[in-house]
Amino acid sequence: MLGKMNISVLLIAAYLPLLPILFLILRSGSFGRGSAGTFLKLFFLGVAAAVPAFLMEAGGMLAVTVLMKVFLSGSREESLYLISAVLRYVLVAAVIEEAWKHFVLRKSTWTQMTMETVADGMAASAAVGAGFSAVMFLAWQVSYWMIPADMASLRAGMPDFLSAGSIISFVYALLFIPAHFGLSGFMGALYGIAKGSDQKSHSGRAGFMLSMSYLLPVLLHGICAGMIGYGLSSGQILWYILGFVAEGILAMVIAITLSSARDAALAAFAAAEAVNSANAANAANADNTANADGAAYASSAENPEAPGTDTTAETGETGFPALEGPGGLYFGTVEDSAGTGADTGSDQGVIDVDASDVQDAQGGLLEMNGTARDYGVPGENLLPDHEMDNSGGF
Fold first, then answer.
1. Lowest CB count within 10 Å: 20, 82, 95, 197, which one?
2. 67: how many CB neighbours lie within 10 A of its CB?
3. What is the pLDDT of residues 206-261, one digit of tens each?
4. CB 131 within 8 A of CB 104
5. CA-to-CA distance for 134 and 44, rounded, in angstroms?
6. 359 in helix, strand or coil?
């Protein structure tokens, strides 16, 4: 009964950090459109990879225990503790666990996923690591408590944290998933560099960083787990405290990096949106901008005081501004003196200009679809010799 209570507490402690970690990974927004689907795919691939990894690791640790009893039974205890830590936690645990996580990450993302930043690789790898560690911890706990107490030889071949005191077991459980999150994030950072190099066709650098994305996490995993294992087996408290601290710092660094990457991505997105909006506004204004020769605005009329001169130049405005005063000219029409906005093509001395009037490069009207009214007789057309020329004059 005591064992069941202990394992329940340990499971609660182990899975307590899981939800915040999953939320942080998903919140990073590093999976593009359909982020939830990609995230779940990577997470459950990590879950699946934990099964063969556990079986291989359990077999490897048992084999190391048997070999040490056969060949090193007469060695000093201090040497045995160190050799056991190196063999079990570096050459077995670290090599096997990181190999499976790296295998899943590469198979599921190398050709199927585009990574624009290092944070994309970190998030993808962390998703795999979260699923992997969730199953791995449960598998070790269940297998240990299922083995009868009288089968000490089998229990001796399992990780030392399973037989440690209650406080150490609780701390180890609390850090188990965050530690794998940190190691996977570290792997993903190097993997993201490799993936980015491959996308830029830098095959040499991509291959080197891809190798480092496996070897360096193995080394880091082996150091952290080795310190904890050596400290627990030898009874030297300092070593497993250093191991716990290293795992905690690594997890915090990866968490802060992912969070900062999201904030930076949001800031970059906002800046890009501002630039796009400004470019769109500039493009719209460019349609209303004079050319290098000072040509008039599209569909604008000329200054009657100076043929060939854009009326907008008189006001110093851009776009389609109106001439001040009675009969002020607006885009495509002429307002009356009362300012009602009505077309005053029938009023005296006013030119009716509509939007289909086309200007030449010098600001002159090539075509006049509106009607010019006589200054002297309302409603009468101008005389034939008052036709407009190509430079905008009558």
1. 20
2. 11
3. 999 999 999 999 999 999 999 999 999 999 999 999 999 999 999 999 999 988 87
4. no
5. 10
6. strand
